[in-house]
Design brief:
It is a single chain. The chain is of the alpha+beta class and 386 residues long. It has 12 helices and 8 strands. The strands form 2 sheets. Strands 1-4-5-8 form a 4-stranded mixed β-sheet. Helix 5 packs antiparallel against helix 6. The structure holds flavin-adenine dinucleotide. It comes from Marinobacter fuscus.
């Protein structure tokens, strides 16, 4: 074990990154002071405000790393990092555009057609075009290669039939990237024969129905595809190579600040309220929380730096998600030392509402985007223990 090294380089943050952070922070302070949004816990899954997404687009804060010709600003992954970090820290309603900005846009850039890049990326960057991820199915979650959604070759395109489950935000989205089987798996080669498609969600044969989670929110969906026709140029990348594409998206999906800041808004509210009156036990809890956030942030920034240098740090990203999601769950329990009475949601107290929502939403943190058991398997393989 002594030879194991993880690579989390400390990035150089130039002045333009600090300037961008303070610009975003000033904007958010103004929005909050003018009651233009209500901060929510787990905002990147639970906070939907289409106007707010559009405002971020107008500010030039979406798709910032993409080429200018496709609506981007050619800034670095670290510029994007500070924007997302500021938004998460205040619980801003960012869910509508989150997947498109984080994942689907970069996928189109790497694997989409020129038409997709010209037509779709500028709309994502403007905060007007949203994406859902069509990976999981009723019988395919951790074992994603067992997807049963089928794409059958027909004249001029493909016909897609199957059911995708837990598709976050699909009810607000114009598109879903759908992983489908395009040929039968050969013995021992289950990861071959899978293909990703860009599917407009207003296509004939698409039906989306909401699923309510235990916090009462209907943020994810069951999405049915009944012989949905998509033209040949809807294939993302190459036919049969969907698995390779998906695994290269994972570092983007797993390492960002959303994997440890989902409940940060509660930390802030609890600490602001308790700041002047901490006993020794509470002070120790605060110290522990701050130390963990700082370590996670350094790791997550390290992954952003690796992505910026063109690497695909899957193992480091899996570690950030494993440690980060456990932190954002754990912190809610720890904060009960400051606020022991819960289940008062609806009494008008912001902290009680945030705490209650956090408590009800936190079980999902270690499931979505790959469960923590599966992530540990990736880390174990990455360091040669499996
Ligand atoms: C809030 C939320 C949002 C989501 N959004 C989306 C979305 O937008 N699009 C999408 O496609 N999916 C989405 N998902 C689905 C998510 O990716 C899956 O829930 C996840 O991959 C786990 O799959 P599963 O639910 O089928 O559980 P299973 O894979 O059945 O796992 C059940 C349990 O078995 C354990 N397990 C499974 N395999 C192993 C193994 N090899 N080793 C050790 N333990 C194992 C798991 O860790 C877990 O504890 C979302 C999920 C949640 C909770």
């Amino acid at each position: 074990m002594s030879g194991i090294r993880f690579n989390f380089p400390a990035p150089e943050l130039d002045q333009s990154i600090y300037d961008l952070r303070s610009e975003v922070r000033t904007f958010l302070r103004e929005e909050i002071c003018n009651d233009r949004f209500t901060p929510v816990t787990d905002c990147w899954c639970a906070g939907v405000d289409l106007d707010f997404s559009r405002k971020l687009g107008q500010k030039g804060w979406l798709g910032v790393t993409w080429p200018k010709q496709y609506g981007g600003r050619e800034l670095s992954a670290l510029h994007r990092y500070v924007i997302t970090e500021e938004l998460l820290a205040v619980g801003a309603p960012v869910h509508a555009h989150w997947i498109a900005d984080r994942q689907s846009g970069p996928l189109i850039l790497s694997s989409g057609t020129e038409d997709m890049k010209r037509n779709i990326l500028p709309r994502i960057a403007a905060g007007e075009c949203f994406f859902a991820l069509g990976l999981s199915e009723p019988e395919a979650g951790s074992d994603l290669a067992s997807v049963k959604t089928r794409a059958r070759k027909v004249d001029g395109g493909w016909e897609i039939t199957g059911t995708k489950l837990w598709s976050s935000g699909a009810q607000h989205c114009q598109y879903m990237t759908v992983l489908a089987r395009t040929s039968d798996p050969l013995e021992g080669k289950r990861h071959e024969g899978l293909t990703q498609f860009l599917v407009p969600l207003d296509s004939q044969g698409v039906a989306i129905s909401g699923i309510r989670d235990m916090s009462g929110l209907m943020h994810f969906n069951e999405s049915h595809f009944d012989s949905v026709f998509v033209p040949d140029d809807s294939v993302l990348g190459k036919v049969g190579e969907g698995w390779k594409q998906i695994t290269s998206e994972l570092a983007l999906e797993r390492s960002g600040p959303e994997r440890f800041l989902s409940t940060f808004i509660v930390v802030e509210h609890a600490l602001v309220r308790a700041a002047s009156d901490l006993d020794a036990r509470q002070a120790a809890i605060v110290g522990g929380i701050i130390a963990r956030v700082r370590a996670l942030r350094a790791m997550s920034l390290g992954v952003a730096a690796l992505l910026e240098s063109g690497k695909s740090p899957d193992v480091e990203a899996a570690l950030v998600k494993d440690l980060g999601t456990r932190f954002e769950q754990d912190v809610v329990e720890r904060l009960r030392a400051f606020r022991p009475i819960l289940w008062k949601s609806g009494n008008g107290d912001v902290l009680d509402d945030l705490m209650t929502d956090s408590l009800l939403r936190q079980p999902s943190f270690t499931l979505r985007g790959g469960t923590n058991e599966v992530l540990k398997g990736i880390v174990a393989r990455g360091i040669g223990l499996r």
